Amino acid sequence: MKKIILFIFALSTLLSGPVLAAEGAQKIPPQDRAEISLSFAPVVKMVAPAVVNIYTTRTVTRRAGNPFMDDPFFRQFFGNSFAFQGGGLSREQVEGALGSGVIVQADGLVVTNAHVIKGADAIRVVLDDGREFDAALALMDEPSDLALLRMETRGQKMPYAELKPSEGLEVGDLVLAIGNPFGVGQTVTSGIVSALSRSSLNISDYNFFIQTDAAVNPGNSGGPLVAMDGSVVGINTAIYSRSGGSLGIGFAIPSEMVRTVIAAEKNGGKAAIQRPWLGVTSQPVTGEIADSLGLEKPSGALIAALHPASPLKKAGAKVGDVIVSMNGKAIRDSSEVKFRMATLPLGTEASLGIFRDGKERALTFKTAAPPEDPGVLPARAWPISTPLWRRKSKALDRRKAASSW
Above 90 in pLDDT, residue 52? Predict the structure, then answer.
């Protein structure tokens, strides 16, 4: 019954095509039985040719254990002594790994996860039609867990998928995940957007993800999360699982972050990507803090400390202000501020909405690179509005919750 309901929503989007996915378009349920008989096949045909399987190899050196250690009789004399174990010989072994990726340019630029190709000596890309190409690492950005590969296409034009902003997604929208789970071959799964701006994780430096219940398993990493108009809105990167298999909780990096990595590679970036610096230490706004400051709801990022050279300080921000929006987009927590900043180019102006003294104010600042030695920002151990008698008991939690960027 649940699958029937899921298809009802899917078919309405497919009937209207890209027009329905346009910004501001109305989403309607299917109107007759003909609409219910539609499928995801047209969307898959648009994107699947651009989704690739990625195979990597690397050489590792291992020391073989002493064979006598497997015998209980000898183990009772030697135990786990280093001298006894050290008798093994060093051997070089070739390890293989697999993942997924998506071609985003006709010249063979592939987006995948950094953890898929990290440490690889050789990278092989296989298309859905069976063609194979060697690939070279163009850029790896570990903080965002994204990497770019350049295929050796020998002048051939590659099928590619279009990146579109994930901002238009809503919780409940249908999405597809395409990849190579467990190495079985290209696989398509469907689901909905379970949550947006998911930040209560520890996956990468920028904990800001699209959550979906489309089945994502090991091997799907680096594959695209696809909207119903055939555009790529995210890169599948992790799952929450107790067994290693899909439990219906998958996470994708929003396409906005992907665009910043592509732009950096285009501008000649080969090493770490330099992102804007705010010089701020912030902490989450709890219900208690929201009440004490007069906020309607506990959202935003409370500024706990400002670096003397902080662009926000120069723009007029103060310790105790709450960041509630950036470039017109509401800020839910500290992680979202960090993510929004990471997607802005250096040297551009940005607007910031702050809450101070019961009113919302607008500030404008210019994004800047971090100074050579920014030092350590002193993070507050408690919110400025917390009564003194509560500060000691909450100090440790506040230290853990504070973040600097």
Answer: yes
CATH (domain of 364): 2.30.42.10
Tokens describing residue 19:
């027009």
Candidates 12, 144, 221, 246; catalytic one: 221
Instruction: Name the domain count of the chain.
Output: 1
**Domain residues for 372?**
280-404
Tell me if residue 310 is catalytic. Answer: no
198 within 8 A of 225, measured Cβ to Cβ? no
pLDDT by residue (tens digit) across 80-90?
Answer: 554 445 455 56
Residue 15 resides in a domain: no
Tell me whether residue 307 is one of the annotated catalytic residues: no
Model pTM? 0.72
The answer to whether residue 71 is catalytic is no
Cα–Cα distance, 94 to 336 (Å, whole number)? 40
338 domain residue, yes or no: yes
Pick the catalytic residue from 145, 213, 229, 321: 145
> What pLDDT is stored for residue 279 in this prediction?
86
Strand segments (E) across 64-205: 90-103, 109-113, 122-126, 132-141, 146-151, 174-179, 187-198
